[in-house]
Design brief:
Length: 358
C-alpha cells in the first residue's frame, strides 16, 4: 500500500478551520462547541495569528485531543493570509469554517455533511444563524436556501454567513477559493459575489451556528473600510449584470440597504423606477434568475414603503409602483424575515457605526 493510499485512508471526512487572534475570552467555548459535535470524523485546525493575549495558552489546552492541530503564525498576518494558509493544511475533502467567538450547534457538521453528500451538484452550504450577545435577546436569522435566491439577495446583503459555511476541498485545489486583499473586511462578500456565478450554493433552513455580537469584533475604522469595500462589490455586480446606472441610482439603491430613505416626495416612485431598470437590464444579460430577482426587489420595495409609513393601498394602485406591491400585499403585516433583518441591522449598528459616525 503506497503513501498516497495510506494518506487517503487516514484523512478525515471533514477539516474545520478556526483562525484566532487575541480571542482568549471566547475561544474556549467556541472550540468546545466543535469538539461536542454529534459528527465525529473531523480534524480541527486552530490557527493562532500571532496573538498577544492568552490565546496560545488556551489553544494548547486542546492540543492533546487527537482531532486537534494547533498552528501558529510568528506574527500577525491577518485573516486572509491565515485562512489561505489553513486551507492549504486541510486533509479532508470537505472544509468547514468557524470563528473563535461563535458557537456551533451540536448537529451542524452532521447536517451539512449529509446535505453535501446528498447533493453532489452543490459545492457550498451554509445555514441559519442565531445572533446573541450584545442584543436584548437572541434572534434567529434564516437566509435564502436556494442558489437562485441567494445570488440576487447579494445586491442588499451577504446571504452566506462565512463562519457557518462548509464547502468542497476541490474549490481550494482549483484555486477558486481565494480571498482578495483589495476587498479586506468584505473579502467573503466579494468572493461569493464572483464565485457563485459558477459554483452552486445553498443554505440549510436549520440554525447551524450562534453568532456572537460584541464590541471587540471590529473598530469604527474597520467598519468604514468594510462599507467602502462592500460598495465596490455591489458596483461590480451591477456592472457584471450590464446594468447602466448613475450615481443617483446607486445612492437610491444604497438607501434601501442602509435603511435610510431619501428625503424626497417621489422617493418610492424613483425606487420603483430603479428596480424596473434593474430587471430590464437583467432580462437582457440573464445575470440573475428573473423570478428570484423580482422577488427580492418586491420584498425590498415593500419593506422600504412600510419604513416610510407610505399609503400601501395607494402604491398598489399607482402604475409607477404597482409592479412591486399588490392590494393583498398592502393588507399584510411586515414579513418576519424583514422584521428580523431590520432588528439585526439595528443591533449591529451599535457595534459597527456608519462611515459618517466613525
Amino acid at each position: 500500500m503506497g503513501p498516497a493510499v495510506m494518506e487517503a485512508k487516514l484523512a478525515p471526512t471533514l477539516s474545520v478551520v478556526m483562525p484566532t487572534y487575541n480571542a482568549a475570552r471566547h475561544v474556549r467555548e467556541a472550540i468546545g462547541s466543535v469538539l461536542a459535535q454529534d459528527f465525529a470524523d473531523f480534524e480541527l485546525l486552530l490557527v493562532d495569528d500571532g496573538s498577544t493575549d492568552d490565546t496560545a495558552i488556551v489553544l494548547q489546552e486542546f492540543a492533546t485531543d487527537p482531532r486537534v492541530r494547533v498552528l501558529r503564525n510568528e506574527r500577525n498576518l491577518g485573516l486572509i493570509t491565515t485562512l489561505h494558509r489553513a486551507y492549504g493544511e486541510c486533509r479532508a475533502s470537505l472544509i468547514a469554517r468557524m470563528d473563535a467567538d461563535d458557537i456551533c450547534e451540536p448537529s451542524r457538521f452532521r447536517k451539512q455533511v449529509e446535505f453535501l453528500r446528498a447533493n453532489a451538484g452543490i459545492d457550498i452550504v451554509g445555514g441559519a444563524i442565531r445572533f446573541f450577545g450584545n442584543i436584548p435577546e437572541p434572534k434567529v436569522f434564516q437566509f435564502p436556501t436556494k442558489h437562485d435566491d441567494i445570488r440576487p439577495a447579494m445586491l442588499f446583503f451577504c446571504p452566506l454567513a462565512h463562519p457557518a459555511l462548509m464547502f468542497r476541498r476541490r474549490l481550494i485545489d482549483e484555486g477558486q477559493m481565494r480571498y482578495d486583499e483589495a476587498f479586506k473586511h468584505a473579502e467573503d462578500y466579494h468572493l461569493w459575489s464572483q464565485l457563485l456565478e459558477r459554483v452552486p450554493s445553498a443554505n440549510l433552513p436549520d440554525v447551524v451556528l450562534s453568532y456572537r455580537l460584541h464590541p471587540q469584533q471590529v473598530s469604527s475604522d474597520s467598519s468604514s473600510k468594510q462599507h467602502e469595500a462592500s460598495l465596490r462589490v455591489r458596483r461590480r455586480m451591477l456592472q457584471a449584470a450590464a446594468v447602466d446606472f448613475s450615481e443617483d441610482d446607486f445612492v437610491l439603491h444604497e438607501s434601501v440597504l442602509l435603511e435610510r430613505p431619501l428625503p424626497m416626495a417621489n422617493y418610492l416612485a424613483l425606487l420603483a423606477g430603479w428596480f424596473e431598470r434593474l430587471e430590464t437590464a437583467n432580462a437582457r444579460s440573464g445575470y440573475w434568475d428573473t423570478s428570484a430577482l423580482h422577488a427580492v426587489l418586491r420584498s425590498k420595495f415593500q419593506e422600504t414603503a412600510r419604513r416610510v409609513d407610505a399609503d400601501l393601498r395607494y402604491l398598489a394602485r399607482d402604475p409607477e409602483t404597482g409592479r412591486y406591491i399588490s392590494a393583498s400585499d398592502a393588507g399584510r403585516s411586515v414579513p418576519i424575515y424583514a422584521a428580523i433583518l431590520s432588528t439585526m441591522r439595528r443591533a449591529k449598528a451599535r457595534l459597527w457605526p456608519s462611515p459618517s459616525q466613525g
